[in-house]
Amino acid sequence: MAYLGNPKNTIEVLQKYNFNFQKKFGQNFLIDTGILEEIIDSAGITKDDMILEIGPGIGTMTQYLCESARQVIAVEIDTNLIPILKDTLSEYDNVKVINDDILKVDINALAEEYNNGKPIKVVANLPYYITTPIIMGLFESHVPIDSITIMVQKEVADRMQAAPGKKDYGALSLAVQYYSHPEIVVNVPPSCFMPQPKVGSSVISLKRYEKPVVDVEDEKLMFKIIRASFNQRRKTLANGLNNFGGMGLTKEQIQQSIEALGVPVNVRGEALSLAQFAQLSNIIGAAK
Ligand code: SAM
């Protein structure tokens, strides 16, 4: 089977199987060899690695992954793609295709079975409609992960990488940056896909931290405070927290907690760094 990462070979496979794209699954297949090579390079794959690929499509990136990794596990929701993958990946004996919804798969069990529980690498051209649940699910469920290299909507990649005070900075930036170091690898125009999406895309690399980079006593409380702060962007941090039930504190206690952080009492949430949110949650947790 020839490599698929170009329009001619992709069309040939699609026609052979009379494949119809399903919009509800976010199907936009990569047809650019240069971008495929950039993804593989930036993922830093070695022959020791187990790779989890989410949504292999017709197997375009899977072929590259099979050549550079020890074992590839590819999870694809669309049953119509399974016979195609059997064909396009027939030359590789180090790939297992699972026909399921990634949000329902026990990834811990896969890492245990195929990688002795050691950290795995996730590489994917993600279905954009479930980008955030997939990424947060991977981080929060304590799956052993070394890195996540993914194609996402450009706007989402910008939000993941944004720093305090920037317009894209928000709850997603803080969640991603709590668990990992994000770095945009390359921006990808719609012309690199078939069919072309309406939005621009970016490949982003998220290198998981081995140890937390901030000192937080109650992770859940910190994320509750973060959500409350960005829920009403135009409001001050104090008003945001009060309108969200005050985290169990009175208005005065909230003000005192913000002052104890050493920032003006009328500060907006978008000005606080991850370290400051961590510190604020420790102060609020102790005052409760
Ligand atoms: N990796 C291929 C490529 O780069 O050409 C396809 C990428 S396409 C953007 C996203 C793929 O994810 C599609 O094949 C789609 O069917 C699949 N998909 C969508 N939702 C999924 C889910 N919940 N679980 C697993 N796969 C899913």
TrEMBL record:
Name of this protein: Ribosomal RNA small subunit methyltransferase A
Organism whose genome encodes this protein: Agathobacter rectalis (strain ATCC 33656 / DSM 3377 / JCM 17463 / KCTC 5835 / VPI 0990)
Enzyme Commission (EC) number: 2.1.1.182
The protein's role, per its UniProt record: Specifically dimethylates two adjacent adenosines (A1518 and A1519) in the loop of a conserved hairpin near the 3'-end of 16S rRNA in the 30S particle. May play a critical role in biogenesis of 30S subunits.
CDD domains given in the database record: AdoMet_MTases
Binding-site residues for S-adenosyl-L-methionine, renumbered to this chain: 28, 30, 55, 76, 101, 125
InterPro entries: KsgA/Erm, Lectin_legB_Mn/Ca_BS, rRNA_Ade_diMease-like_C, rRNA_Ade_Mease_Trfase_CS, rRNA_Ade_methylase_Trfase_N, rRNA_adenine_dimethylase, SAM-dependent_MTases_sf
Catalytic reaction equation(s): adenosine(1518)/adenosine(1519) in 16S rRNA + 4 S-adenosyl-L-methionine = N(6)-dimethyladenosine(1518)/N(6)-dimethyladenosine(1519) in 16S rRNA + 4 S-adenosyl-L-homocysteine + 4 H(+)
